[in-house]
Design a protein that fits this description.
heterodimer; A: about 250 residues; alpha/beta; 5-stranded mixed β-sheet; 9 strands; about 20% strand; B: about 775 residues; 8-stranded mixed β-sheet; 6-stranded mixed β-sheet; 17 helices
Chain lengths: ~250, ~775
């Protein structure tokens, strides 16, 4: 009787241990040992920001706003960036409206995440352009709207918008030999999560890197809700780190 | 005074009477004891024993008196004062005045008759001076006149020499009898410095005998660089010397360029003495220009000097190394500052495991000392103390002392505080504060949200509420403005030209600041921030010269927020960083040049002119120098100079000639200078400058330990030099009873009594 109780207790303990390790490992272990960065090891402070912008859907009943999908993905990415790099990224999630240039300009990188066609007025366009001309960087990720019929609506609309706002812009598709794939973590291929795999495009305007645009929904990988395989999720984080760091240094 | 006095001394209670009573009582006691003894003793034995015992008692009382010889010595000592008396023996002191008496005679009369020289405690040594200091026996007769007539007076040099020499020879003071005139043309500053640091007392007696003299003016020194960059200014210093210029006379110094219109006109004051004129010549176009300075009295040229300035464009390129210790958005912004600028080449290197963590090649390491020489500026960006090795510190020190620019950029207060009292801090212009300003690094709502989503597998359920809470909460932090110091306002770093050609001040803004405790002595603070909360000025930007280079500290974030908060059309951010890096790089902008300390070069003499080959000159033997004069060309040889990296050429010059000195390297002229030689120098200065220079003597008298006496009244030397007398006394004592023979006699008496007793059969 006593032995049976003991056995149940051990099994229960092992099961609890398995559960806890699974939860934390999914989001934090990127296949390398975490480095302990003290405050003295970090650079100057910076915060993460999601851009708030209107979109146009396939019907008038749909919401004009879909910029806000899953902030938990952003917050986990912030944590990864803090855990694995010396970036002094504040553990803070912020929102800047595209009509408010002052708020946008408080962040060197703005994360744009949407499902449908971007639908912004002239003022917002000017703000977006001015933000980039001042040195700001756009990280544009397509949140998959319809996996089968329209998987990259936002991606295509943003490409058109960039061409319109920045005449002479060069959108260059990056291969896995590009430095982006090894500037921090080494990745052998582009980590596509879902939707249409258009790869990743780097936008250069007047020889300056101003944006990364892709339709692979990396952000859904960062959410880490068990939607993708373990490896895919880790690669999404790794590529997120690489994208951020490459933008900082180039 | 040194003498000995000797005395015999003794002590006994009651003095002589005491002894007498003691002896009488003792004799009585002995006599009675033998008179009434119970033993049968003969009278002879009683007498002998009584005498023996009395004699024995005498010796005991003698010893009890403590007889001794005392010697006393007294010494009188007095401290002597040694004073040097100097009399000016220059030409101006020997010119006869209206009453057929010269200043030298007046000085000697003054010394003989009007100075109370004190007693033997004062010792005087006499000197005369003109160009040199000569010792003489006394002033009873006139000092012998120097062989060379019309000697210049090098008063300032003599004062400096006295300050160095006399303390070593144990002098207590110096008395100068002089008219204050120095005709050597040097600045009195060195003499003032030496006097203020001297422990001796210096007493100046101005000898002011009126002498008939003419008005006179001349150039004494001209200092101007002969190489400059376009857009800068060349500082020029011209020293003039004049005598008896009446107030109605117009004295003017005019500087012309290439024989054209005057570029500078300065009016000089009338009267006598030395005047300095300082001005700056703006350099606007590249090329060689000949400048001429003419000194005139009522429009009539009295002296002139000419020199050339080679004007070239600033260094065309600068190589900057940014060595980064932590990832920062500043990198991207700094990179783009120079993206369109071919003149500046920017190279980024990262400390180990900061960037490109999988790659372990040399590009992640700090360059060695040889590699460092390729750069003009090294930026230590966001480095923490652990990332700086002793090799790096050593190499950086060498790099800056050789002329490199070091820029320490870090706005992280936690990281910067670690550099307080570090070896690297010694190289920098500021001392960092070991305390730091704490800042909030996380948002409570986000942290709570993160905790929730990490605690469960499906964390998306809180997304909507979190987004709703955060959507409108962000407030743009207000940036802080740089406040420029007085030096900062003049610094080219904070200046930019508008499209209309006007100069506009650049005022950067920042968010993060690391605390700096104070600027080091000799460092210049360019900008600070007024911390209203602590009512303190926080240093933001400071620099110091270190060796040939410069080191600078910016204790803020890399200012990218300022860029983001100004319009894209406003290029202040870009201009600020370009100015800053170009300015830092100028330390290494050392090119070949000739150095002429004084452009007043007198003809008919052997001349030496220094040459600096510049930083990039590798083979000095390939440099060919020649001197051009009208149609003749003279080949010159470079000789190594006293200091490292300096050479000189020697040549004989003729008066009133224009010379051009050129240095060529592989057929290309690398340094050139033109100058005009002066007429052969005649030592007539002593005859023309006759008005005593009382102004400089009064200036000397403002210093501690320097006094000015009136030659009419005379003075008492004891007023300045007081002597002291000391009495020393010494006492010695030699006891007389403390002798071996005394003890022997006492023992003898004891033995004698035994023998007598035996003889008379008493025992």
């Amino acid at each position: 009787m006593g032995d049976e109780n003991k056995m149940i207790r051990v099994i229960f303990l092992l099961f609890a241990l398995f559960l806890s390790s699974n939860i934390s490992a999914q989001s934090k272990n990127l296949g390398m040992k975490k480095r302990k960065f003290s405050e003295a090891d970090r650079g100057s402070r910076v915060s993460w920001c999601r851009l708030k912008f209107p979109v146009r859907g396939s019907s008038s009943r749909e919401s004009a706003w879909d910029w806000h999908a899953h902030p938990s993905g952003d917050v986990k990415m912030i944590q990864v960036l803090r855990d694995y790099t010396s970036i002094n990224l504040k553990q803070e999630w912020n929102v800047a409206d595209i009509t408010d240039l002052d708020k946008m300009c408080a962040f060197p990188l703005i994360f744009m995440h949407g499902q449908r066609l971007i639908n912004i007025n002239k003022k917002a366009e000017n703000n977006l352009k001015e933000y980039v001309l001042r040195g700001g960087f756009l990280l544009i990720d397509d949140c998959v709207y319809n996996k089968y019929s329209a998987p990259d609506l936002f991606f295509r609309s943003m490409m058109r918008k960039l061409y319109k706002l920045f005449p002479g812009i060069k959108l260059k598709k990056l291969t896995n030999k590009h430095k982006l794939f090894k500037c921090y973590f080494k990745l052998y291929r582009w980590p596509h999560m879902q939707g249409r795999d258009n790869g990743i495009y780097a936008a250069y305007y007047k020889k300056r890197l101003i944006a990364f645009v892709y339709s692979s929904d990396l952000h859904c990988g960062w959410v880490d809700a068990g939607w993708f395989s373990y490896t895919k999720t880790q690669n999404a984080y790794k590529m997120g780190v690489n994208l951020y760091i490459y933008a900082m240094n180039n | 005074m040194n003498q000995w006095v000797q005395h015999f001394r003794w002590d006994f209670p009651g003095g002589g009477w005491g002894i007498a009573v003691a002896l009488a009582a003792g004799l009585l006691l002995i006599a009675l004891s033998y008179r009434y003894t119970l033993r049968k003793t003969s009278a002879n034995a009683k007498v002998a024993l009584t005498m023996l015992r009395f004699t024995f008692m005498l010796f005991i009382i003698f010893c009890l008196c403590r007889p001794r010889i005392e010697r006393e010595r007294s010494m009188k000592s007095s401290s002597k004062k040694k004073i040097a008396v100097l009399v000016d023996d220059s030409g101006s002191m020997r010119i006869k005045g209206f009453w057929k008496k010269d200043r030298l005679q007046e000085a000697m009369t003054f010394w003989r008759e009007k100075v109370k020289k004190g007693d033997d405690a004062y010792k005087y040594e006499y000197f005369s001076f003109a160009e040199k200091l000569n010792q003489c026996l006394d002033f009873n007769s006139r000092p012998k006149q120097s062989k060379i007539k019309d000697l210049n007076t090098k008063l300032y040099k003599i004062i400096s020499e006295c300050c160095n020499r006399f303390p070593a020879e144990n002098f207590d003071g110096v008395i100068y009898m002089t008219d204050g005139i120095d005709t050597s043309g040097v600045s009195p500053q060195d003499a003032v410095n030496k006097l203020s640091a001297s422990n001796l007392k210096h007493i100046f007696v101005p000898i002011c005998t009126e002498l008939p003299s003419k008005s006179y003016i001349t150039l004494r020194k001209v200092e101007a660089g002969n190489r400059a960059f376009v857009g800068t200014e060349v500082p020029v210093l011209i020293m003039t010397q004049q005598s008896n210029i009446s107030p109605t006379t117009k004295v003017e110094l005019k500087v012309t360029k290439n024989g054209g219109k005057p570029v500078a006109i300065h009016k000089l004051r009338s009267g006598s003495g030395v005047q300095s004129v300082k001005f700056r010549l703006p350099i606007r176009k590249a090329g060689v220009d000949l400048y001429k300075a003419v000194l005139s009295l009522d429009g009539k040229a009295k002296a002139e000097v000419a020199w050339s300035i080679t004007k070239s464009l600033k260094k065309e390129s600068a190589r900057i190394l940014i060595y980064q210790g932590a990832l920062d958005w500043g990198t991207r912004f700094l990179r783009y500052v120079f993206a369109d600028n071919d003149k500046i080449k920017l190279e980024l290197r990262y400390a180990s495991k900061v960037y490109d963590i999988n790659q372990r090649n040399a590009s992640t390491n700090f360059p060695d000392s040889t590699e460092l020489t390729k750069y003009d500026v090294v930026v230590l960006f966001n480095l923490n103390r652990k990332q700086i090795t002793s090799r790096m510190e050593r190499d950086l020190r060498d790099f800056v002392s050789r002329g490199g620019g070091l820029f320490f950029l870090n706005g992280n207060p936690v990281s910067v505080k670690e550099f307080a009292d570090s070896p690297l801090e010694k190289l920098l212009p500021v001392k960092f504060d070991p305390n730091y300003n704490k800042a909030i690094r996380s948002d409570a709502q986000t942290m709570d949200f993160l905790h929730r989503i990490n605690s469960t597998r499906n964390g998306t359920r809180w997304d909507t509420s979190f987004r709703q809470n955060k959507e409108f909460t962000f407030k743009v932090p207000k940036l802080k403005k740089f406040k420029l110091s007085r030096i900062g306002l003049q610094s080219p770093i904070f200046k930019r030209k508008t499209k209309l050609g006007k100069i506009k001040q650049i005022i950067p803004k920042f968010q993060d600041i690391a605390w700096v405790q104070k600027a080091k002595p000799g460092a210049n603070v360019l900008a600070y921030w007024h911390d209203k909360r602590k009512a303190k000025k926080r240093i933001l930007l400071a620099y110091q010269n270190f060796g040939k280079g410069r080191s600078m500290v910016l204790a803020t974030d890399p200012l990218w927020r300022w860029r983001m908060n100004t319009s894209s059309k406003d290029k202040s951010f870009e201009k600020f960083w370009q100015n800053l890096f170009f300015w830092l790089a100028q330390g290494q902008n050392e090119e070949a040049r000739w150095i002429i300390p004084n452009l007043l070069i007198f003809g008919g003499k052997q001349i030496e002119i220094s040459f600096v080959p510049g930083k990039n000159m590798i083979d000095i033997n390939k440099i060919k120098c020649h001197l051009e004069n009208r149609k003749t060309i003279q080949k010159l040889f470079l000789h190594p100079g006293n200091s490292k990296g300096r050479y000189f050429v020697k040549f004989a010059s003729k008066p009133n000639q224009k010379y051009t000195l050129k240095a060529q390297y592989e057929g290309k002229v690398i340094a050139s200078v033109s100058f005009l030689t002066q007429p052969q120098k005649k030592s007539k200065m002593e005859e023309v400058i006759l008005k005593p220079d009382l102004k400089i003597l009064h200036e000397f008298a403002t210093l501690p330990n320097v006094y000015l006496e009136n030659s009419q009244d005379g003075f008492d030397i004891r007023k300045y030099f007081t002597t002291k007398t000391f009495m020393l006394s010494e006492k010695e004592s030699f006891p007389l009873w403390h002798r071996w023979w005394i003890y022997l006699i006492i023992v003898g008496f004891f033995g004698a009594e035994m023998i007598i007793r035996r003889f008379f059969k008493l025992v």
